[in-house]
Amino acid sequence: MHLTNAEEQIMKLLWRLDKAFIRDLLNEFPDPKPAPTTVLTLLKRMIDKGFVSYKQYGNSREYFPLIKKADYFSDHINGLIKDFFNNSTAQFASFFTNETNMNQQELKELRDLVDKKISTKKTKK
Questions:
Q1: CB 101 within 8 A of CB 111
Q2: Would the N or C end of the chain have less CB density within 10 A of its end CB?
Q3: In this structure, are residues 65 and 52 in contact, taking their beta carbons and an 8 Å threshold?
């Protein structure tokens, strides 16, 4: 299950803040700020989807993420690879390196990351 763009915006705030009351979230939005009821509605949907939970303090709720940013991002990338690149990470890597504006230094850094991953996979065998 995925989040809408509006839900993702709130999720990014929660990941950054770690936990937040509604006023904390509203303070993080640029002007014009959304209505509190809009944010509360989005939070309810995110709770129903299993992405967010809260602790009750009297009449106030402190919201916090249930999923890590890296896990959510990884799920998105794996979905893209499956849906648009025939589940081939090699096709994705080819597209990524050809269609982004990576300079020579960035490409070398990427190669170093791949080489490092290859060497750790060899030692695990």
A1: no
A2: C
A3: yes
Beta bridge partners of 63: 20, 54
Same domain, 61 and 75: no
Count CA atoms within 13 Å of residue 37 on its CB side. Answer: 0
Q: Are residues 50 and 74 in the same domain?
A: no
- Name, in order, each residue with C-beta under 8 angstroms of 38's C-beta and a sequence gap of 6 or more: none
Per DSSP, the three-state class of 40 is helix
Q: With CA atoms as reference, report the closest residue to 7 among 19, 32, 25.
A: 25
Q: Tokens for 17?
A: 């803040």
Tell me the per-residue pLDDT of 85-119, one tens digit each, with 9 for 90 and over: 999 888 888 888 888 888 999 989 988 988 888 88
Is the pTM of the predicted complex or chain greater than 0.85? Answer: no
For residues 79 and 25, the answer to whether their CB atoms sit within 8 Å is: no
Number of domains in the chain: 2
Beta-strand runs (E) in 48-97:
52-57, 60-65
